[in-house]
Design a protein that fits this description.
The protein is mainly alpha-helical and about 475 residues long. Among the domains are: about 5-275, 3-Layer(aba) Sandwich (Rossmann fold); about 405-455, no CATH class. Helix content is about 50%, strand content about 5%. It has 19 helices and six strands. It has a six-stranded mixed sheet with strand order 3-2-1-4-6-5, with helices on both faces. The longest helix has 21 residues, at about 135-155.
C-alpha cells in the first residue's frame, strides 16, 4: 500500500487510513495476547484482514512476534460458490504469510459431526429452522468458533478477537458494540467468553468506505477483490459474519450464508446467483424451498410426528391439538434421498473445479447410527439409499456378531404383531441392551429401559381419542352443579 493510495482513500472516504494503521500497530504491539481474526470471505472481514495485514507487515520482523489466527467458520451447508472461494483464499493466505514472514495462519472450523445440520435434521428429525426455533446458529456457528477461541485462551491466557463489524450496519449492532466497550482502550469485553476481548478496526466504516478500500488496495495474499465485487453483484448480497455470541446478528434477507436457510421467506442471494448464470445451483434452491414448505402451518402434519423426540405428546393449551414433533421417519428417508440426488445433479452440472459435497460421509455414518438405535432401522436404509443414488458403498465399521440385520427386523416385526407390541419399542429395548453389552457395571441399562418405557407407544388416533374423552369429561364435571364448590 502506498502513501498516495492512503491519501486518495482518506479524501474519498473521510477516513484517515494512515492514522488507522498506526492505531492498529499500537494495539497489536501493546501486549502479548494473540489475535483471532474472524474471516467470512465477505467484504467487511476481507477489509479488516487487509488492514491488519498491511499494518503488521509495516512493523520490523522482530516486532511481528504475536500470532494472528485467521478463523473461518464453515457450517457445512454454506453456498458452494462461497465454500470454494473461501477454501482457495485460506490456502492463498497461508502461502503468502509464509512468503512474507507474517505471523498469520488461516484455518476453518466446522461443527462436530453430531451437531451438524443434516445429522440433526435427517438423523434426529429436527424441523427446518424458523424464527421461533432457530436451532442451527449455536450448533453450526457459535460452538465451533467458541471452541477454537477457548482453546487459544487456555493456551495463551487471553486473546483478542478482531471482527470486521461496522456500527453503520444497524442500530442494534451499534448498541451491542458500545455496550461492552472498555473505557480508555480500543477493546471491548466479549459478551460471553471470559479471557476474550474484541477489537473492531472498521467500526466507523460505511459500505462505500469498505469497497473504496478494497478496490484501491490489492490483496496482500494475491486475491483479486474485483472477483469479490462480482460475486456480490451476482448475488445482490451482504455477508454472514463470524458469529461468536447470541448478540451478533445471524444471517437473513439477501446475505451469503447457508443455502438451506429457511429463517427467511426467500433466498434472494441464491436466486440472484442463478439468474446471473449459476444455473447449476438450481437443485439446491429447489430443495431449500421444499424445506421451507414443511414450515407451512397447513402442511406441517404431513411431515411431522405427533410425538416429541422424547416420546411425549404435548397439546396446545386445553385443546385436542398436539404440538408437532420431529420429522416423520418416512420423510427423513425421503429427504436423505433428495439431498444425495441434489448432490449428484449439482456436481454433474458444476463448472470445472466446483465439486460440491452436500453431506459428509461422517454425517451419513452418524445418521445411520441414530436410525439404528432410535428407529430400529436394522435394514440399514442409509447404506441402501447411498448405494441406490450414488452407486457407491457407504464405508461403515465392520459389524460385530451382535449387530441386528434386516432379517432380524422381519422376525421382530412378526413377533410384535403376534403380541400386539410396537416393533420400535422392542427394537429400542434390544438396542439398549446391546449398547451396554460387556460392561462390568450395568446400572445405566435401568435408566435406558425406563426412559424407553416412559415414551408414548400408542398410535395417534388412540392418544387423541383419549385426550378428547378426558376433555369432555372435565367439561362435563365443571358444568355439573353437584361438583361446584361454595364461594
Amino acid at each position: 500500500m502506498t502513501a498516495s493510495t492512503d491519501t486518495n482513500f482518506a479524501k474519498k472516504a473521510g477516513i484517515d487510513l494512515v492514522a488507522l494503521q498506526n492505531h492498529i500497530r499500537t494495539v497489536y504491539t501493546a501486549d502479548d495476547r494473540p489475535w483471532v481474526i474472524g474471516y467470512s470471505g465477505g467484504k467487511d472481514s476481507t477489509c479488516a484482514l487487509q488492514l491488519i495485514w498491511s499494518a503488521v507487515r509495516a512493523l520490523p520482523e522482530g516486532e511481528r512476534r504475536k500470532p494472528v489466527f485467521v478463523l473461518s467458520s464453515d457450517t457445512l451447508v454454506e453456498t458452494p460458490v462461497i465454500v470454494n472461494y473461501i477454501d482457495d483464499t485460506l490456502a492463498a493466505i497461508n502461502a503468502a504469510a509464509a512468503d512474507q514472514n507474517m505471523p498469520i495462519t488461516a484455518q476453518k472450523v466446522v461443527p462436530e459431526t453430531s451437531d451438524s445440520f443434516w445429522v440433526n435434521m435427517i438423523g434426529r428429525g429436527y424441523p427446518a429452522p424458523s424464527k421461533r426455533f432457530r436451532w442451527c446458529t449455536e450448533r453450526l456457528k457459535i460452538d465451533p468458533a467458541n471452541a477454537f477461541i477457548k482453546n487459544r485462551v487456555a493456551e495463551y491466557g487471553e486473546v483478542v478477537m478482531v471482527l470486521g463489524v461496522r456500527s453503520a450496519e444497524s442500530a442494534t449492532r451499534a448498541q451491542v458494540m458500545s455496550l461492552h466497550k472498555i473505557h480508555g482502550t480500543a477493546l471491548s469485553r466479549h459478551s460471553t467468553l471470559p479471557g476474550a476481548f474484541v477489537f473492531t478496526p472498521i467500526e466507523a466504516f460505511s459500505v462505500d468506505d469498505v469497497w473504496a478500500f478494497l478496490l484501491q488496495n490489492p490483496s496482500p495474499w494475491g486475491s483479486d477483490n474485483r472477483d469479490l465485487l462480482a460475486m456480490y453483484r451476482n448475488a445482490q448480497a451482504g455477508e454472514c459474519p463470524l458469529v461468536v455470541d447470541k448478540q451478533t446478528e445471524s444471517c437473513g434477507n439477501s446475505r451469503f450464508g447457508c443455502w438451506v436457510c429457511t429463517v427467511v421467506t426467500k433466498d434472494k442471494a441464491m436466486e440472484a446467483m442463478i439468474d446471473n448464470g449459476e444455473e447449476w445451483l438450481e437443485p439446491l434452491l429447489e430443495l431449500r424451498d421444499e424445506l421451507a414448505e414443511t414450515q407451512n402451518p397447513d402442511r406441517k402434519r404431513e411431515f411431522r410426528d405427533f410425538k416429541r423426540r422424547d416420546g411425549s405428546v404435548t397439546f396446545v393449551g386445553d385443546s385436542e391439538t398436539s404440538i408437532p414433533g420431529p420429522y416423520l421417519f418416512t420423510y427423513r428417508k425421503e429427504l436423505l434421498r433428495k439431498v444425495l440426488e441434489a448432490q449428484e445433479q449439482v456436481n454433474s452440472k458444476a463448472p470445472p473445479g466446483e465439486k460440491t459435497v452436500l453431506i459428509q460421509v461422517e454425517e451419513l455414518r452418524e445418521i445411520r447410527r441414530i436410525w439404528r438405535s432410535e428407529q430400529g432401522d436394522w435394514g440399514d436404509a442409509v447404506s441402501e439409499t447411498v448405494k441406490a443414488v450414488t452407486g457407491k458403498e457407504l464405508p461403515v465399521e465392520a459389524a460385530d456378531g451382535f449387530e441386528f440385520q434386516a432379517d432380524d427386523a422381519k422376525v421382530l416385526a412378526d413377533v410384535c404383531a403376534a403380541h400386539d407390541l410396537a416393533p420400535r419399542l422392542m427394537a429400542q429395548l434390544l438396542e439398549a441392551e446391546r449398547s451396554v453389552r460387556g460392561l462390568k457395571r450395568r446400572t445405566l441399562i435401568h435408566r435406558k429401559i425406563a426412559s424407553i418405557l416412559e415414551q408414548e407407544w400408542r398410535d395417534e388416533i388412540t392418544v387423541l381419542n383419549e385426550r378428547k374423552e378426558r376433555l369432555e369429561k372435565n367439561n362435563s364435571t365443571s358444568s355439573n352443579p353437584l361438583f361446584e364448590t361454595e364461594s
